[in-house]
């Protein structure tokens, strides 16, 4: 169809006229909103014919003529003075303007024409966070002081074009943002993986695209943790709150590329130590584990010793009280003048595991105790 319109501009103008006739009555009622309806017509044509079918300025020109009662489709535009637009600005000025645009305006600007799209795609897009708690509650927080936009009552607001958020549907937003090649998301928080979230993952799978996310958090009790849609080499931190995960569920998470390459995997569980599948963590290179129950120092010390013997851990943090050190009292592993420190040689190498009990004050000013186990050389 694009080839036909290149050879026959009348066909293109006729298509625009049909779109105008669809909204002519509404424009007559509220003429001040004619650009709103022209933009919606442009979106319909893009959806039906492809994103490069028609630039918005061309459609806007013909809508403006039709609005004035000029319906001659064979009007020769070659004699018109060249209209100056923002794209005629020097590139550095255009880019400077882009720095001050809100996220929704960037997304809209990208859809205006191919020239704009090329420039917008070369801008960095950094988001502090995408927060998702179901389609009825999600928000996006851009970097550099831009205000967040958020969505609630998705079903009611889906068609509300006056909503601050340009994308009521999270799938629409994420897939639109992924068209920006320089998209970077610092943190993704997922509370509820509902049908809309599953639709988003399906769309990502179909597009063979993954999210550029540095940190992901699943702060609500769940064992259904899916990480495959994030770029493994980009993802640095994974935080998850699990209830009573099975060994199979835990192993599937740990064996993912994302967990294997992450700088740290934070795991919190309400399960007791005896029920948590600790052996699934033998192959997790870097992790922090917090189990919400009484000390269980015997089980935890047994796990740490097995981890040093059978595991492939580079760094482990296990929340435990100081008494756990009584299980690591072999004279040869104690370090003089450092009563909280132990060092275990790794057979066949020059490396060793350093085990240390640490007491810290967290951000809530509460004292916390844990054991740090790290491979060193």
Task: Compile the SSE list and pairings.
Layout: H1 2-7, H2 9-29, H3 34-49, H4 56-67, H5 91-99, H6 103-110, H7 114-120, E1 125-133, E2 137-142, E3 149-152, H8 154-157, H9 170-177, E4 183-192, H10 195-207, E5 213-218, E6 237-242, H11 247-254, H12 257-261, E7 264-269, E8 286-291, H13 297-310, E9 315-319, E10 334-335, E11 338-345, E12 352-361, E13 367-376
Parallel strand pairs: 1-4, 4-5, 5-6, 6-7, 7-8, 8-9
Antiparallel strand pairs: 1-2, 2-3, 9-13, 10-11, 11-12, 12-13
Structure description:
This protein has 377 residues and is an alpha/beta fold. Among the domains are: 2-83; 315-377, no CATH class. Helix content is 35%, strand content 23%. It is built from 13 helices and 13 strands. Strands 3-2-1-4-5-6-7-8-9-13-12-11-10 form a 13-stranded mixed sheet. Helix 2 packs across helix 4, helix 6 (103-110) crosses helix 7 and helix 9 (170-177) packs parallel to helix 10. The radius of gyration is 29 Å and the shape is elongated. The termini are far apart. Residues 83-130 form the F-box domain. InterPro entries: DUF38/FTH_CAE_spp (IPR002900), F-box-like_dom_sf (IPR036047), F-box_dom (IPR001810), Mos1_HTH (IPR041426). This is F-box domain-containing protein. It holds the Pfam family FTH.
């Amino acid at each position: 169809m694009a080839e036909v319109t290149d050879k026959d501009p009348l066909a293109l103008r006729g298509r625009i006229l049909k779109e105008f006739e669809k909204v002519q009555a509404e424009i007559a009622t509220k003429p001040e909103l004619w650009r709103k309806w022209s933009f919606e017509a442009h979106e319909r044509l893009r959806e039906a014919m492809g994103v490069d079918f028609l630039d918005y300025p061309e459609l806007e020109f013909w809508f403006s003529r039709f609005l004035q009662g000029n319906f001659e489709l064979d009007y020769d535009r070659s004699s018109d003075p060249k209209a100056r637009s923002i794209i005629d600005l020097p590139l550095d000025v255009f880019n400077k303007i882009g720095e001050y645009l809100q996220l929704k305006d960037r997304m809209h600007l990208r859809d205006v024409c191919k020239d704009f799209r090329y420039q917008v795609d070369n801008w960095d897009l950094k988001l502090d966070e995408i927060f998702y708690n179901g389609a009825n509650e999600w928000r996006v927080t851009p970097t550099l002081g831009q205000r967040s936009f958020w969505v609630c009552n998705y079903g009611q607001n889906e068609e509300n074009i006056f909503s601050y958020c340009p994308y009521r549907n999270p799938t629409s937003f994420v897939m639109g943002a992924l068209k920006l090649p320089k998209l970077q998301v610092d943190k993704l928080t997922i509370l509820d993986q509902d049908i809309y979230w599953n639709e988003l993952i399906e769309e990502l799978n179909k597009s063979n695209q993954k999210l550029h996310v540095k940190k992901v958090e699943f702060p609500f009790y769940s064992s259904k943790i899916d990480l495959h849609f994030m770029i493994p080499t980009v993802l640095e931190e994974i935080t998850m709150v699990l209830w009573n995960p099975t060994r199979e569920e835990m192993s599937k998470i740990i064996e993912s590329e994302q967990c294997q390459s992450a700088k740290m995997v934070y795991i919190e569980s309400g399960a007791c130590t005896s029920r948590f599948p600790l052996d699934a963590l033998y192959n997790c290179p870097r992790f922090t584990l917090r189990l919400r129950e009484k000390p269980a120092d015997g089980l935890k010390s047994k796990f740490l010793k097995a981890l040093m013997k059978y595991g492939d851990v580079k760094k482990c943090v296990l929340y435990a009280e100081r008494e756990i050190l009584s299980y690591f009292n072999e004279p040869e592993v104690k370090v003089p003048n450092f009563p909280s420190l132990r060092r275990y040689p790794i057979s066949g190498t020059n490396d060793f595991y350093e085990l240390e009990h640490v007491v810290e004050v967290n951000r809530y000013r509460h004292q916390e105790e844990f054991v740090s186990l790290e491979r060193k050389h």
